[in-house]
Amino acid sequence: MKEQTRELGNFLANYFIEQGMDVDVAHFLNMLINIAIVGVLWYVMHYITKKLVLTSFQRFTNKTVTTFDDYLVKSNFPRYISNIFPLLLLILTVPVVFEDYPKLLSVFEKLVDIYIIFLTVFIGRSLVRTTTNYMKRHERYHDKPIESYAQILIIFFWSIGIIFMFSELTGKSVVGFLISLGAASAIILFIFKDTILGFIASIQVSVNDIVRIGDWITFSKYGADGFVTEINLATVRVQNWDNTYTTIPTYNLISDSFHNWRGMQESPGRRIKRSLNIKQNSIRFINDEDLARFQEFDLIASYIHEKQEEINAYNSKLGVDKKHLINGRHQTNLGVFRQYALSYLKAHPKIHKEMTMMVRHLPPTTQGIPIEIYCFSEDKRWEYYEAITADIFDHLIAAIPYFDLQLFESPSGDDILKALKPLQSK
After folding, report:
1. What does pTM read for this prediction?
2. Could you tell me which residue ranges the Mechanosensitive ion channel MscS domain spans (predicted)?
3. Residues sharing a CB contact under 8 Å with residue 270, sequence separation 6 or more, in sequence order
């Protein structure tokens, strides 16, 4: 077979020599013509095989139920496979075309070998991307950093490919190249420092379950506040609430501190924790008239009655002088309001009844006494959570005057003008 191929390749050279042409010129012209013929054959074969393979794959994917083959098409796997047949043509013809020129033959054989390496890497990369995209569509892998592992495999393929290419170009064995590569390990570590750190970080993020795709995280250092949409080998992409994207180095997820709101998302409720600042000079003891008025409020009527009976019994036992309210025990308008707020939370249909619920004092400040509402909303969706919170505080702010309390508010320009108006009239 080889002899027949060699005779076919030298057919034109023998013909030119028979016609009286110089031997060297005849062989050189024969090589150029053979290159042109092989080039045309390669182009035609490449075009035909590409059409056939792509068409066959498309028909096959249309008939099958699985989507794996669809992702093969999207990752250009059929296109890379179609290059195998033209490559075989080059492997068979190059030794024949450059038989009389050993140096050129060596160069072109190296080029063909590099072509083989490139094609192998691209096919491997295509399979990795296909598998990655196929797995990402399944719910069980939805929150896993599959992209990081895919990038690691692609880097591995390229590393092996580059090693073989350098070995091919330099003529050294792969083992010898790896030994010489070890001598330059410090430089390699410096160049690929971020990649190595990202590789280690991505493993730790996955093994320790620090972040998943779909988690809501807040990373103040990078201005990130939103959902994780992608975890790669080197970076984590976060879509912020304003639909902008923030890219965070993967290594920083294990070296810096950030908030992951997954616990809230997985819990049965979302925390409401806000305060109302009450003016201190509006707080006072309540009298019998106030008690009668407060008992008309449905949410605290029973509380007022029971609490007052307890206080009356205590005061009677000690013989307290009721002339001054400071003597003995008495209810305050703030204490009654706190109970009202707690009763309102317990009656609210959107507040989780099995989780912590309280209305508490915080330390007094220059802005008054903070009364904190601490409870959990059953609906964790942002817009509904905000609506529930607003509904609670709308009601409590409107209810405060009924208890003869006042909210603290820094004076505005109008407040100052009203205070100065009596002085201006004089």
Report:
1. 0.55
2. 194-262
3. 264, 376, 377, 379, 380, 385
Tokens, residue 141? 């892998």
Answer whether 291's CB lies under 8 Å from 304's CB: yes
d(CA 337, CA 396): 9
Q: Are residues 113 and 188 in the same domain?
A: no
Q: Which two tokens stand for residue 74?
A: 């999207």
pLDDT tens over the chain, length 426 residues: 445 445 545 555 555 566 656 666 666 676 777 778 778 888 888 888 888 888 887 777 777 766 777 777 778 888 888 888 888 888 877 777 777 777 777 778 888 888 888 888 888 888 888 888 777 777 666 666 677 677 777 877 887 887 788 777 777 776 666 666 655 566 666 666 666 777 777 777 776 778 888 888 999 888 899 999 888 777 889 999 888 999 888 888 887 888 888 877 778 889 999 999 999 999 999 888 888 899 999 999 999 989 988 988 888 888 877 777 788 888 999 999 999 999 999 999 999 999 999 999 999 998 899 999 999 999 988 889 999 999 999 999 999 999 999 999 877 666 667 766 766 665
- How many beta carbons lie within 10 A of that of residue 318, not counting itself? 11
Name the phi and psi angles at 388, rounded to 5. -65, -45
Is the residue at 221 inside a domain?
yes
Helix (H) / strand (E) element for 248: namely strand 245-249
Among 100, 105, 94, 102, which residue's Cα sits nearest to residue 23? Answer: 100
Residue 292, domain member (yes or no): no
| 286 neighbors 332 (Cβ within 8 angstroms) | yes
DSSP H or E segment with residue 15: helix 11-18
Residue type, 228: V
Which residue, among 146, 128, 127, has the nearest Cα to 137 in the 3D structure?
A: 146
Cβ contact 148:206 at 8 Å: yes
Comparing C-alpha atoms, which of 351, 410, 408 is closest to residue 376? Answer: 351
Nearest-angstrom CA–CA distance, 215 and 260: 7
How many domains would you assign to the chain? 3
Do 132 and 165 lie in one domain? The reply is: no
Judgement on whether residues 90 and 218 belong to the same structural domain of the protein: no
Q: What is the DSSP letter of 351?
A: B
Helix (H, G, I), strand (E, B) or coil at 406: coil
